[in-house]
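We modelled the chain as a single entity of 167 amino acids. Its sequence is:
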Amino acid sequence: MMSLLIASFVSMIGIFCIPFLRKTLHPLEILTCGLLVASLDQFSYAILTLNLEFIKASENPYEFWALKLEQIFIAPVLILLGVFVFFSESLRPLGKAFILTGFVFLLLAVTYCYDRSGIIQFVKWRWSSEWLRDAALLAVSIGFLMLFRKFLKWQGVSRDPVSSDSL
């Protein structure tokens, strides 16, 4: 029950961060990237637990919903913040690399918290594999948004970033 409350609280904080993303990202980019990451996270979790049996999940319904909140809200918002940093024009490339690495480690920290609380157990899966999965999610979402930006530009959709004083 406590893990569900913590995941709900962190999810609410993440949702309140979404208007901040409008400074760099178009609302369509925010929506499509969030849905892409949520679906990829659900898909990878289903493969790792059901098909390959690399991760064993707790059968407690509260812990199940806490894990789903992480996959539907926490991970997509953290990756969206990483994408925001990647597309930010005010940061230097080295700073972007450090911050993106920090977001991957935050995703790894969420998984570590779930592992320590007993929600998930690694059976044949290792921390290095989880780190690679999180980095791959971030890389796929950045690549997808680069293509999506080209598509939006080709379709003539204006980017209309919001000024910082209007938020």
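As a brief sanity check on the tokenised model: The beta strands are 55-57, 120-122. The longest strand covers residues 55-57.
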